[in-house]
Structure formats: C-alpha cells, structure tokens
Amino acid sequence: xxxxxxxxxxxxxxxxxxxxxxxxDRDGRLYLQKDEHMETGEIYLSGGRIVHAVCGTxxxxxxxxxxxxxxxxxxxxxxxxxxxxxxxxxETGQILSEGTQQFQAWQxxxxxxxxxxxxxxxxxxxxxxxxxxxxxxxxxxxxxxxxEHSVSELARSLNxxxxxxxxxxxxxxxxxxxxxxxxxRPITKEVVSANFFSNLENELVQLIGPVASIIIxxxxxxxGETRMSFPKDKVPSLVEGISNEIYDPAKxxxxxxxxxxxxxLMK
Length: 267
Known about the structure:
The termini are far apart. Helix 9 (235-243) packs antiparallel against helix 10. The protein has 267 residues and is α+β, with helices and mostly antiparallel strands. It is flat, with a radius of gyration of 21 Å. Strands 1-6-2-3-4-5 form a six-stranded antiparallel β-sheet, with helices on one face. The protein has a three-stranded antiparallel β-sheet with strand order 8-7-9. It has helices at residues 14-23, 61-67, 92-112, 135-143, 151-158, 162-174, 194-208, 212-222, 235-243, 249-266; strands at residues 5-8, 28-33, 40-46, 49-55, 58-59, 74-78, 119-122, 149-150, 178-180.
C-alpha cells in the first residue's frame, strides 16, 4: 500500500495540503504526527469533501482547527484509508476558508509567544478603556496573580487547550497586561557565532538543496530561539532536529558525521 503524498510539515502547511486534496476530489486519510510530542491526528476526505477529523480527545471541527495549526512534524495521505464517520457538516470551502483565517491569526500568536514554555507575568497596568475582557480572558489574567506562568502551565491548571490559552495570552500581551517574566527571560549563555549558521546552511544546501534555510529556521523556532541568540549547549539538539527532517538515510548519516566534527571544534 503506497501513500500518494507524504513529507514534512516544514515544507508545506496542513491547510495547503487539504486544499490540494480537496481540489482533486480525493478520498482517504491525511495522517499527521508532531515531532516534539509524538502527538498524532487524522483528517478524512470523501470525494474531496472534509468529513471527519480526530486529534486526541477532540473530534470534528475542534480537531480540524487544532490540526491545521501544526507546523512541525510529518504528514502522509493514504487513499485506501476511509471512514464512515461524519463529524464535520460544514461545506469544505467554508471550513477551509475559516481554517486559513485561523492559521494567519496564529502566525501572530506564535510571533508573540515563540515557545509554550516561556513564562509571562502581569505588568501591573490597567486594561485600556477600548479593551473588553471576557470570562476566559479574566480567568487567564487572574492566574498571573500567583506569579509567572507559561502557556503549558496555564493550560494544565485551567484545563484548557494550549492553543486557546496562547490566543488569549497574545491579546493580553497586545493590551499591555502581561509581558515576558524574569524567569522566562533567557539566561545569558554562550551563543554560537554567525559563521556557524552560515557554514551549517552551506553544508546542508549541498545535501538537500535550497530548502535548507527553511528547515534550519523552523527547527530554531521550535526551540524558541533565533540564529543570533542560539545557545551553544543546544547545538546537539539542533543537529538532531535538523537530521530528523532529512529523509534520505545516506544524507542523514553524512550530515550527522559532519556536525559531530564541527561540534567538537566548538568545545
């Protein structure tokens, strides 16, 4: 049994894959897997119509809108995997349009909150008169009375999805009500040089082509870091993350061997 479409989410957005499948009137299952937590999800199509989605305990639209925001991991479409379940009633064009809007809004959230482990705190400012907080907004804001918290911590304590907490937090950041906390600010560490990333990109381009830059930046973003501030002690994990995105075993080994030498020279 062969997959007609598979690859890395570093190269293509989930919403883009679904638009391609829907336009081709496809039947089958789009299987998604997140690298960092090994979470999985599934979206089913019938005649190009999105009919069912599942992600953890979520079904239907909640699962669909969760999965379209995944930007790290792997995907595989299998035309032989179908389902009789129908948990999505909306027309495919409508739900894809709504999904595109949510994905675009999520890019702003990820810019403000690059890591769900990053801790935030209250600023002590009053809410601007033009900002109207709702019930869940107050619930998240009031949680900061007890100190600094990350998205992941609040999601667990408030029994909410990380995506929902992050969305609320981004609006609180915009309103000047919370900011990065002292314990969430990066501790000063020795960082890698700009030449390191220049050499890394040149070597990776030789192995896999011009997508090398995209892969490097996506993996760095997954660590909540930038090229300018990437700590030396995270380089081995960075190499592992990049290596996982190289699907040719021979090229993957060649990359790992090359980077082992470079890491030794850094010490």
